[in-house]
Amino acid sequence: MSTTVDRSRRPLVIVSIMLATFMVAIEATIVATAMPRIVGQLGGFTYYSWVFSAFLLAQSTTTVIYGKLSDIFGRKPVLIGGILIFLAGSTLAGFAWSMASLIVFRLLQGLGAGAIQPVTMTVVGDLYKLEERAKVQGALASVWAVSAVIGPLAGGVIVDHLSWAWIFWLNLPLGVLTIIGLTLFLHERVTPGKVRIDYLGTILFSISIVSLLVILTEANAGLATLAPLAVLFLVSGVLFIWQERRAAEPIISIALWSRRLIATSNVATLLAGMALIGLTTILPIYVQGVLGRTPLVAGFTLTMLIVGWPLAVMLASRLFRAFGIRMTLRAGSVMLPFGSLFLLLLTPESSPVLAGAGSFLMGFGMGLISLSSTVLVQESVEWSMRGSATASIIFSRSLGSTLGATVLGAILNIGIVHFGSGDLAAKLHEVLNQPSGLSDLAADPAIRNIFDAALHWTFWGVATVAILTFATIWLIPVTHDAGRRQVSKTDAQEAMTH
Questions:
Q1: Which of these, 33, 251, 262, 298, is most buried using a 10 Å CB contact count?
Q2: pTM value?
Q3: Is the same domain home to 212 and 308?
């Protein structure tokens, strides 16, 4: 397969790719900012975390498949197909009439989003030589930084002045412009090839993870419900491992993942992903419901997280040369739990600045961890396995986000029941299921204190996962002088976009 674009038109292709990337990048902050208002209108606060988990699960499980499909059918049709699916999910999500319908439409969104990140990065690799790629990757990385600022602002303005449906419908003009740009300016000649796709492995993996997520969400259900789900999780998990050992091109290479450096790096990345998604989904609720601030203020506490991340990446190459990759990686491992301690100090009288400071430190730590682990994994394997090794890091982070959103959501629901003593818990859920529920909490100190205590359980969960990340990173085998050589700007920018 070859991709041909006139040099004068390559910037137009990159603009199209940046629009597609922006649609996915802004999802985290704009949806998290608006979700308290959405759940207040639709009801069903118990399934709050599933709105994030459904999207992340679909996105993570389809990423590898879309990458292989782009090798068979070409980048453009696969990318445009993914964008169309994403836009269909966005359109339907705006018409959601219940939490269940919103979760289904978010799942559809995720099925489309799984194509955007891997295929857009592949297109950049097709169009630009290695020495040209740093500037392009820098432009793509800037999209994530811009979305960190625009997302909370747009989310706050929309929920305050418009229908929350525009949170999702905002994607429609961006998606249409992207498709037009790709259609007009990206041209390919596809040579038919045979690539085996591990569909059975994907199905088994999805069954196993979905059953685990349901178990975590319905932790208070009876044994008659949980036991069959536990059996389904174990059986599908065992069959998945068996399938991956025999598949010609598995989703997860058991041989690759069994290497100590890659295994520990992936576990650390998964745990870090759990911690960060917990912060992303829980912090806006706390700032609005307990501190009594607006959705805009809540969104900007998340902005500090995504500002800290690229700042750390920009400084990382200097830290590598000065201190080595091992010290840089371990510095990141310290900052992640240190930032989570700020969350534990929050009280109903706290300033949002305290929440923003913890968010920034966790983002900065994640930036150091992200780049360091990516470079380590890439340098530990031969060229022919570098793509698979890099994909394992992206996959682990996505899986961690999926699990984290569900686990911490379950902890929040359990905490409400524990501290609410029946009637108060029911009253709290009733308030949260109202359009202005979070703003009404400040007027009722009794239920606000219950919500505060339950949310602190989730903050303890974030802190615990951050500490486990710290411990796992110290198990990664790294030599003392690793990383003192020059790290390419391209590697740094690619880590930001991951």
A1: 33
A2: 0.71
A3: no
